[in-house]
Design brief:
By secondary structure, the protein is of the alpha/beta class. It is 30% helix and 21% strand. The two termini are 27 Å apart.
Length: 192
């Protein structure tokens, strides 16, 4: 990874960390409200989110909205040090450590394949490129799903302060299809 990406990640995370807990909660609810029409239009069968850590945008309001349109909900877990997979999450299920400091459904939960994947991120640009946390878990999981012919719709969830002017996308980077913040829902530009 380039020094520029590392600097963009650090700066965007610092801006995110500076947001108050109250603002982050309200902004996460606003983002969910902005994404609800997209959920209704796509009518996904399985939506995977993530359990929020640190100062991340909270996907739980968005997952609740997905459940209301009939989607099954999933959360990721690390099957090993590099392989991320997804398990079905019932709203009242007990959560267990799932790797990378987050939580997910226990081993008894069914493994599923999401058709809409809510992706956390450190930074994004208007072309809907993203910078993750540097471990590549989501990138590898998405690539594996694509190779299996199961490409999910990718919806980034972030706060507006995480936007950067331009991310130098690398060959393995897969742009998001949509990105939602507390201010707007963005769609990827059409491919030429």
């Amino acid at each position: 990874m380039s020094d520029v990406k590392a600097d963009q990640r650090a700066a965007a995370l610092a801006r995110r960390d500076a947001l108050s807990e109250h603002y982050r909660a309200e902004a996460s609810s606003n983002a969910a409200a902005l994404a609800e029409p997209l959920l209704a239009r796509l009518a996904p069968s399985v939506v995977s989110g993530y359990w929020p850590i640190r100062s991340e945008a909270d996907p739980r309001p968005l997952l609740a909205a997905a459940r209301l349109v009939g989607a099954a909900i999933a959360l990721p877990f690390l099957a090993d040090a590099i392989t991320m997979r997804f398990r079905q999450f019932e709203h009242d299920a007990r959560l267990v450590p799932a790797g990378f400091g987050t939580y997910g459904p226990p081993e008894t939960a069914a493994e599923v394949v999401p058709d809409l994947l809510i992706v956390p991120l450190a930074a994004f640009d208007r072309a809907l490129n993203r910078i993750g946390y540097g471990k590549g878990h989501f990138d590898r999981a998405i690539a594996r799903l694509i190779e299996a012919g199961r490409r999910p719709v990718l919806l980034g969830l972030a706060f507006a302060v995480q936007e950067v002017e331009k991310i130098a996308a690398e060959p393995h980077d897969i742009p998001l299809d949509f990105l939602v913040t507390e201010r707007e829902l963005m769609a990827a530009p059409p491919h030429a």
